[in-house]
Amino acid sequence: MTENWAKVVQSLQNMDMGALGAGMPGAGAKQPEIRFSPAKLQALQQQYLQDAMGLFSQSMTAVVPKGDKRFADEAWGCNPVAAYAAAVYTLNARAMMALADAVESDEKTRTRIRFAVEQWMAAAAPSNFLAFNAEAQKKALDTKGESIAKGMQNLLHDMRQGHVSMTDESVFEVGKNVATTEGAVVFENAYFQLIEYKPLTTKVYERPFLMVPPCINKFYILDLQPENSLVRYAVEQGHRTFVVSWRNPDASLAKATWDDYIEQAVIKAIAVTQEITGAPTINALGFCVGGTMLGTALAVLAAQGEKPVASATFLTSLLDFTDTGILDVFIDEAFVKYREKEMGKGGLMKGKDLASTFSFLRPNDLVWNYVVGNYLKGETPPPFDLLYWNSDCTNLPGPWYAWYLRNTYLENNLVKPGKATVCGEKLNLNLVDMPVYIYGSREDHIVPIGGAYASTQVFPGKKRFVMGASGHIAGVINPPAKGKRSHWIRADGKFPKSQATWLEGATEYPGSWWPDWSAWLKSHAGKQIAAPKTYGKGKYKAMEPAPGSYVKAKA
Q1: Closest of 144, 132, 137, 47 to residue 96, by C-alpha
Q2: Which residues pair with 210 in a beta bridge?
Q3: Cα–Cα distance measured from residue 441 to residue 496, given in angstroms and rounded to the nearest whole number
Q4: What is the pTM (predicted TM-score) of this model?
Q5: Phi, psi values for residue 59, rounded to 5°
Q6: Is the pLDDT of residue 116 over 60?
Q7: Is residue 78 annotated as part of the catalytic site, yes or no?
Q8: How many CA atoms lie within 13 A of 60 on its CB side?
Q9: In sequence order, which residues have a C-beta less than 8 Å from that of residue 331 and are 6 or more positions away?
């Protein structure tokens, strides 16, 4: 046992940190030194030996660990071998995580080691293997082997489609039962289609409203079902609403750059919205990477002396990339150089690779849970619109992706005045002087709450920051009618440097943050005018019904 412990410690010390993450190169990268305090190591070893001896003395009377949903089914407790396997696994997982926390190195190395160990332990769980999974074994017996046969069918199906099924995808169809808010495509180019939605009120606010979703996903996360659609909600509130629907890049966009997307997509969408409505200024919203792109576009326009946007909303968006959470484990100079060499001059970042990376940020919930259910237990996952959207992945142009990695995650250039040049203009977000509404989700693992809050320190104008409960998607898509979750607002309008300090003076309110945002947006929308009876205007005519054709293209 002591020899095994020593081997585990040595494996951590020899870990190739450069090899962590999808496509991250390890060759040639200088590896950080990993050390352990002898006293701490001895204490951990002694604790492990004590816990192990206690477990071994229980032998076949081991109790299934409580609080782990992987072992929650009663079948685990009724099977002594399975219960013992779960208990041994839990002991080893606890010891491995304690070792990872005991590493003496720089903070990034410690985070990377912890991430690697978490992936390792998630994959090694006895629940992932039919030979140890008591619940799957019982189901196989109860169904006389039918669950195993169905599991094999599910496995072959997922191999053909190229990803693990998270939901019953056969139930959904874009434009039929997701992305159904009535509207029309009124403009398109090589990068996006612009959708105008049919008013649901007799009057609309004179200042139109444009949504810029992330190009890393399909736009209809904002328009899943009528009851949870932020698009429909905005239309119901009386806003003449437009949405950017990104094209799913193929070889024709393999050389598209960040500049192209800012100039030919975000800025173009702003201009077309102005032309169709005749409004001198519009209100705009950016979600996730869409918020980063909107902020970039506004900085370009400010440098050109233009201010076509009267107010901006940023939902779970990063502009200051100081706090990027777990995604930071993938980013260093070697990784970015590798991506630049691989696709900086052309190529595509495959959507399936991106989707896989994001899923493994939460491996138990988004990977192994479905491996066990689909294949070991032969179950079909229930229909869930959000998970259908999550599986409908998109590609990214290589040059766009390479620029984004270096100038945001690696060098954080967007918040350094004059450091980044986009569309021929040196960016300075301090010049983006307008009212802004900034939203962050408390448990967001993609845009940490501190990263979302950091935008309050960037914009010079009047700001409102709201924190919602839950994560990156569930926190945002939280319609009022559901009465779920809660949100926090600080009434005194102060924005201290840290989000933690801000929260000390904030008040929690039950339910969705949408009504607060709606009231804020209406205050910047101008007077009400008669709603238009047709889509578009002049040369901008209805080309096809919403949600358009771009959103239906598969990666």
Answers
A1: 47
A2: 242, 284
A3: 18
A4: 0.91
A5: 50, -120
A6: yes
A7: no
A8: 4
A9: 324, 405, 409, 410
- How confident is the model over 29-39, as a mean pLDDT? 73
Q: Burial of 172 by CB count in 10 Å (0-12 exposed, 13-18 middle, 19+ buried)?
A: buried
Check: CB of residue 24 under 8 Å from CB of residue 335. yes
Going by C-alpha positions, the residue among 299, 280, 281 that lies closest to residue 291 is 299
pLDDT score recorded for residue 23: 40
List alpha helices for 225-332, DSSP H. Answer: 230-236, 258-261, 267-277, 289-303
| Joined tokens for residue 515 | 């009504």
- 442-486, pLDDT tens digit by residue? 999 999 999 999 999 999 999 999 999 999 999 999 999 999 999
**Pairwise CA distance, residues 150 & 515, whole Å:** 45
How far, CA to CA in Å, does 199 sit from each of 181, 242, 273, 312, 341?
10, 11, 15, 21, 48
Q: Which helix (H) or strand (E) holds 437?
A: strand 436-441
Q: Which of 215, 288, 393, 423 is catalytic?
A: 288
CB 208 within 8 A of CB 234: no
Residues in contact with 4: Cβ distance below 8 Å, sequence separation at least 6, in sequence order: none
- Find out whether 519 and 237 touch, Cβ atoms under 8 Å: no
pLDDT of amino acid 105 = 86
Residue 508, number of CB atoms within 10 A of its CB: 11
CA-angle at 276, arms to 550 and 183, nearest 5°: 45
d(CA 45, CA 270): 61
Contact 466, 491 (CB under 8 A): no
Query: 540 forms bridges with which residues in the sheet?
Result: 537
**Cβ–Cβ < 8 Å for 466, 499:** no
Helix 80-102 and helix 38-58, axial crossing angle in degrees, nearest 10: 170
Q: Bridge partners of 530?
A: 203
User: Going by C-beta distance under 8 Å and a sequence separation of 6 or more, which residues neighbour residue 256?
Assistant: 191, 249, 397, 399, 400
Bridging pattern class, strands 421-422 and 528-530: unpaired
Q: Are 269 and 242 in contact (CB under 8 A)?
A: yes
Residue whose structure tokens are 């899923």:
359
Give CB contacts under 8 A, 24+ apart, made by 358-366.
358/446, 359/164, 360/119, 361/326, 361/327, 361/445, 361/446, 362/445, 363/118, 363/119, 363/122, 363/123, 364/70, 364/122, 364/125, 366/166
Through-space distance between the first and last CA atoms of the chain, rounded to whole angstroms: 49
For 170-192, how does the pLDDT look when each residue is reduced to its tens digit (9 = 90+)?
A: 999 999 999 999 999 999 999 99
- Between helices 146-161 and 134-142, what is the axis angle to 10°? 120
